[in-house]
TrEMBL record:
Gene3D superfamilies (alphabetical): Glycogen Phosphorylase B
Protein name from the UniProt record: Alpha-1,4 glucan phosphorylase
GO molecular function, one term: glycogen phosphorylase activity
Keywords: Carbohydrate metabolism, Glycosyltransferase, Pyridoxal phosphate, Transferase
């Protein structure tokens, strides 16, 4: 037990004072107290924002006591903690999650009803923190949810961007980006600690000095900023555990300001402040691409340096022997964005703590592990050495030394094989630091995020490293949290499952297997069908209110939601839609015989990614033509609600019948949306890519629509020589679809608008859209057929749910714990 502060005589002064009473009356009292004393308003004078804040504060009040108690117990223990380093956390709304985790959902609903407050209105008030781009950021959010639920000590470290992922609007069908000022009305979930700010330095030079006969190096930085921690609670699911997410915000360094003030230049001082605050100002809206921008490197070093120092100086006991750091911390690198932490820890150990290089390197190697999320060469980060040397000169020296010693070891093993040395050097021939190489050399383990991806990573991207470091490479297949993506997003399905098999599945998702027999139970299937219909109505209401869009009751819902990227092949989906449209208007099929389908897209494009933006424009253009053409008789509808985000995903996924996972084989590292759809009873039409491979193996071929080339077939076609135009000639449907797009049929006759897309496909087609078209259309025809047999479709859908329990992020966390982290729960 932690002793009371000196002089404390009151018994309550020892630890957290405890939560308010978990009853409706207790909740009401606390709610009104918060409204009055924190917001400074009465209920009758309150705004919806006041009422939302008071509700969030009340939920918070119940969680805080557990949080503080957990922090106290962790610090009194000597447990190893997982320090998850991620530049992105795509959290989604917090209110419902925190209500569910604390077991207060029913009490809160009743309490607010007694106060005459509409809880739905308050839910809608919450702005989701969009502090991530897509899969990578959402994965981090799922992982910290699972760690808290499994009582594993964890601090999530990241950046509190003032502007998260941009808000997308459409103007004449084209994407327009608006700033996401998610903090405009404040956030009730954060606990700022300006008093605990850290100084983070940049620039300057290095020097050697004599330290009692030993020559040492040190960094003499030129400028610095303050990193202010903001803490967020990460509650486990009804287990009394609350972990911490600590996001850093940049602020001007006052000492630095003052010197400028003294020189009398007020305007310069204010400019300097703005400069400092720029570091955490905005999330880079890149996904699966890397831009070597200086501000981005500043962001990376800023949060990683603050996080490592926080763990060593604040979380660990004073005077902790850092040779034992691996017993207390594992720093998990979420892709290469935090890899600058490797030379930073070396700098702390060698320059500041005066540890021998070899000892420091041994500690560092045990403290880091690296997760790779891509195979695309354009997404592998590299930092030009002049930029790195200007911003972090000491770190560059340390990287050089790491590389020297590594290459020496390679020479010892393989002899002076210069080609191999060049291929494995952390510094590329054109003078840039290859961050994935640095992470691989430094990490105790390197993992890919699905079986196929991990295999390709070892065999195709880093084979020399796999040979040099046997046992370092491993796979951990991604997962998603069933609390948010089943229980909260799909309460109807959750009730059905719990009624059938109890509620153990929420923390042990493999138990969904027990649902298998219900696939053959006609009553259960009917209830399942009603659940889907109810979710479609709920989505319809959302889209109507949000965007004025309408969904027909009797349509199959065919969904493709994910970032817009050529490798994900939204174009292939469009070619299918154009083909279905063309079959009707050309008279090949009767509109009345076409099964009704609504295609739903959700996708943001990186603002600088021209082709992706053009494809967005084309989706909207095809949608307006198809939706308004009377010959279609409403059988096909294309909906593209703007600003796809976590909140919208939670509405769309539970309503989907068909999940589109159609990337070129070998390109999608894993996918996690694919898992969310299967768990919500959608059938997948997909390629053998990423985690689709594992989904299909688990749910069975009969319950999955496979199409397209496999990864080895893709390789073979490249090797033979791929000429996309040949495919357009061979398949008349494909030729017509491309002609329609290229001729201006979707751009009011102006062929120039979408011709670049068509010529790109015909002449380049890096992602082999045309090569997989024929097979995709055939798969979609099978989908149409299958959907007419409602009982069989629902049986497959139930089996998808029952057999997807593997894809819980709790299982992913188990795998990381057993194979990489070797941590234990805090009992
Ligand atoms: C963000 C910034 C940069 Cl500079 C590069 C990549 C990203 C990014 O967001 N990547 C990303 O989301 N990758 C995805 O990670 C998911 C989780 O592992 C995978 O499921 C998905 O396949 C992969 O594309």
């Amino acid at each position: 037990p932690v002793p009371a502060p000196a002089g404390a005589t009151h018994p309550l002064a020892i630890g957290p004072v405890g939560a308010p009473e978990a009853t409706v009356d207790g909740f009401v009292a606390q709610y009104l107290r918060n409204l009055n004393f924190d917001r400074g308003v009465t209920l009758s004078a309150s705004t919806a924002n006041d009422r939302f804040y008071a509700l969030a504060y009340t939920v918070r009040d119940y969680l805080v006591a557990r949080w503080l108690e957990g922090v106290r117990r962790y610090r009194a223990s000597d447990r190893k903690a997982v320090c998850y380093l991620s530049a992105e956390y795509l959290l989604g709304r917090q209110l419902d999650n925190n209500l569910l985790a604390s077991g207060l959902s029913d009490i809160a609903a009743e309490a607010l009803a007694q106060c005459g407050v509409d809880i739905e209105e308050l839910r809608a008030q919450e702005v989701e923190p969009g502090l991530g781009n897509g899969g990578l950021g959402r994965l981090a959010a799922c992982f910290i949810d699972s760690l808290a639920t499994m009582s594993v000590p964890n601090v999530g470290y990241g950046i509190r961007y003032e502007y998260g992922i941009f808000r997308q609007t459409f103007e004449d069908g084209r994407q327009v980006e608006q700033p996401d000022s998610w903090l405009e009305l404040g956030s009730p979930w954060e606990f700022p600690h300006p008093e605990a700010a850290q100084t983070i330095s940049f620039g300057g030079s290095t020097e050697k000095y004599d330290d009692g006969g030993v020559t040492r190096s040190r960094w003499v930085p030129a400028w610095s900023v303050q990193a202010v921690p903001y803490n967020y609670m990460v509650p486990g699911y009804q287990n009394g555990r609350v972990n911490t997410l600590r996001l850093w915000s940049s602020r001007a360094n006052h000492a630095f300001d003052l010197s400028v003030f003294n020189a009398g230049d007020y305007v310069e001082a204010v400019r300097a402040q703005t400069f400092a605050e720029n570091i955490s100002k905005v999330l880079y809206p890149e996904d699966s691409t890397a831009q070597g921008k200086e501000l981005r490197l500043q962001q990376q070093y800023f949060f990683v340096a603050a996080s490592i120092r926080d763990f060593i100086d604040v979380v660990l006991p004073e005077d902790f022997d850092l040779t034992r750091l691996p017993e207390r911390a594992i720093f998990q690198l979420n892709d290469t964005h935090p890899v600058i932490g490797v030379p930073e820890l070396m700098r702390i150990l060698v320059d500041e703590k005066k540890m021998e290089w070899d000892a420091a390197w041994a500690v560092t190697q045990q403290c880091f592990a690296y997760t790779c999320h891509t195979l695309l060469p354009e997404a592998l980060e590299v930092w030009p050495i002049d930029l790195l040397g200007r911003l972090l000169p000491r770190h560059l020296e340390i990287i050089y030394r790491i590389n020297e010693e590594f290459l020496l070891a390679v020479r010892e093993r393989f002899g002076d094989d210069e080609a191999r040395i060049r291929d494995m050097s952390i510094i590329s021939p054109d003078g840039a630091v290859r961050m994935a190489f640095l992470a691989t050399v430094a990490g105790s383990k390197v993992n890919g995020v699905a079986e196929l991806h991990s295999q390709l990573l070892r065999e195709k991207v880093l084979p020399a490293f796999d040979e040099f470091f046997p046992g370092k490479f491993t796979n951990v297949t991604n997962g998603v949290t069933p609390r948010r993506f089943v229980r909260l997003a799909n309460p109807e399905l959750s009730a059905l499952i719990t009624e059938a098999i109890g509620d153990g599945w929420l923390t042990d998702l493999e138990r969904l297997r027990e649902l298998e027999p219900f696939a053959d139970d006609a009553d259960f299937r009917t209830a399942f069908g009603e659940m889907k219909a109810a979710n479609k109505r709920r989505l319809a209401a959302t889209l109507q209110a949000r965007d004025g869009l309408t969904i027909a009751d009797d349509h199959m819902l065919d969904v493709m939601v994910k970032r817009l990227h050529e490798y994900k092949r939204q174009m292939l989906k469009l070619l299918h839609i154009v083909t279905a449209y063309d079959r009707i208007v050309s008279g090949e099929v009767e509109a009345s015989s076409v099964p009704g389908r609504t295609f739903v897209f959700g996708a943001k494009a990186a603002p600088g990614y021209d082709m992706a933006k053009r494809i967005i424009h084309l989706i909207n253009a095809v949608g307006s033509v198809v939706n308004d053409d009377p010959r279609v008789e409403g059988r096909l509808k294309v909906l593209f609600p703007p600003n796809y985000n976590v909140t919208l995903a939670e509405r769309i996924i539970p309503a989907a019948d068909l999940s589109e996972q159609i990337s070129l084989a070998g390109k999608e590292a894993s996918g996690t949306g694919n898992m969310k759809f299967a768990l919500n009873g959608a059938l997948t039409v997909g390629t053998d890519d990423g985690a689709n491979v594992e989904i299909r193996e688990l749910v069975g071929d009969d319950n999955f629509f496979l199409f397209g080339m496999s990864e080895p077939e893709v390789e073979a076609l490249w090797a033979r020589g791929y000429t996309p135009a040949e495919f357009a000639e061979k398949d008349a449907g494909l030729g017509r679809a491309l002609d329609l797009i290229g001729s201006g049929a979707f751009s009011g006759g102006d062929a120039s608008v979408f011709a670049p897309i068509v010529s790109n496909l015909m002449n380049d087609d890096r992602f082999m859209v045309l090569a997989d078209y024929t097979s995709y259309i055939a798969a979609q025809d099978r989908v149409d057929d299958a959907y007419t047999d409602t009982a069989a479709w629902q049986r497959s859908a139930v089996l998808n749910v029952a057999r997807s329990g593997f894809f819980s992020s709790d299982r992913s966390m188990r795998d990381y714990i057993d194979r990489i982290w070797h941590t234990e729960p805090l009992g």
